[in-house]
Every structure is written in structure tokens, then in C-alpha cells.
TrEMBL record:
This is ABC transmembrane type-1 domain-containing protein. One of its GO terms (biological process) is transmembrane transport. InterPro entries: MetI-like (IPR000515), MetI-like_sf (IPR035906). It comes from Amycolatopsis rifamycinica. Belongs to the binding-protein-dependent transport system permease family.
Amino acid sequence: MTDRRRGTRIGMMLLGAVIAILFVLPLWWMVASALRSQDETFRTLSPVSVWTVIPREVSISHFVRLFQGEFGRAMLNSVVVTAATLVIGLAICATAAFALAVLDFPGRTAVFAVMVVSFLIPFDAIAIPLSSIFQDAGLQNSYTGLVLPGIGNGFAVFLLRGFFRGVPDDLADAAHVDGLGWWGIFWRVYLPLSKPALVGAGLILFVFQWQAYLWPLLIAPDPAMKVAPVAIAQLSGEHGVDFGAIFAGSVLTALVPLLVLVFFQRYFTQSLTSSGLKG
């Protein structure tokens, strides 16, 4: 039985390694294509060989050409919009989750049900009518118009509410005895205990806004307000497609969330596991 278990474990590890390689290979091919000439990228596709994923000559010319255009400004816009969404969104989602988890008020269950339904509806389904409302309000081509739809995230509220409901009620009762109001309890008791949940909710807000394409395309057509995904898409035009620059831009835009997710992975896992401690 020991040998059989060992063999099963080795087999599962090998299977996991193969699956991981299959997931990594397309990403690595994108990186390799960003570091070699465009002609070499397509010449090595058929027949497939080791040179398909390993560049013969490494060059950063695609990255240099990319930043000679408007991509640098687009990356800066993405950073500004995502940072604003993260800060404002966490403040709004955390206070909303605290109210839904701790405060007892009429209609709390109905409000929470609306929150749950809100993140089940694809944003693309409401993007076009919502953009018309924003244009009528004078929010086109503005950071405010780019940020507002991302600050109220139903899934982030759901995650934080589950964590807050796992905090013992005795802590809030003791804080009440010491004279703290609900705002003081939220600020001094719940927030210091909710670091994993805040990181998890922050990652949700970050990824949602960083990868946004349709909404920035609709609400910010001004070239000065373009974000990185839109700038990459516009490298493909009627006069040709700059595949090298597209690969380079894709590597840069994927690298930022990858580093953030790797760094905060432990906290994100804790937030998901702890959000269901108390129903």
C-alpha cells in the first residue's frame, strides 16, 4: 500500500506539472515573441520546435518602439485609475460590508440580496446604456468617469461581509461598553482584524479595473485618456498590425497584476477561506 500511495502521489505530481506547463507555455510564447523580431515569431510557428518558445536573438526594440508612442501615457492612466478605484472602492465596500454584517436595520437582507445579484450581472450588459448616462452627466473623457463604475463591487462587499460576520460579537459588545460608537468599532476593532479580507477585496477591485477595456473605450475616446488595454488594441489598425508591439504591451500589462497577485496571494487565500466562517 505504501508503494501504491507513493506511485499515486508521483503520478499526480507529474500530471500537475504537465498541466502547469500547458498553462505557462502560451504566456512564455508571448514573452518570447516580445523579445524577438516579428518575422522570427511567425517563421518558427511551423513546424513547431524549441525555437518557437526560445528566441534566437533577444531584442528590446518592440518595447522601445512601444514607449516612443502613446503607450507610456496609457500605462500611467491605468495606474492612476486603478489606484483611485482601489482606495475609494475599498473605503466604500468595507463600510457597506460592515453595515450589512454587523448593523441590524430593516431591509438588510434585501439590500444584501441586491448586492449579490449585482455581481452576477455582466458589466458589459449595462456598459452601453450606462455610458449614455455618464455622457449626459458630462463625465466623458475624465478620470471620474473611468473610476466610478469600479468602486462599488458586489463581490468585494460579499467577501468582506463574510469576514466581518466571522468576527466575534463579544468584541463589538466590549467596545460598546468602553464607549465606542459604530464608527469607532468599525475603525478600531474590525478593520485591524480584516487585513486578509481587505487585501482580497483590493485584489478584486484591482483586477477588475486594470483589465477593463469596453468601459474605457466607451467613456474615454480622447487619446490623452486612453488606458493600457485600449492602447494595445489600437496597435492593430487598417494599415497593418504591429504584432511585436502588441506582444510587448501585453507582457507589460500582464506583469503588473502578476507581481501583485504573487505578492498578496497568501492574504487572498486567507480572505477566501475566512469569509465563510460564519453564515
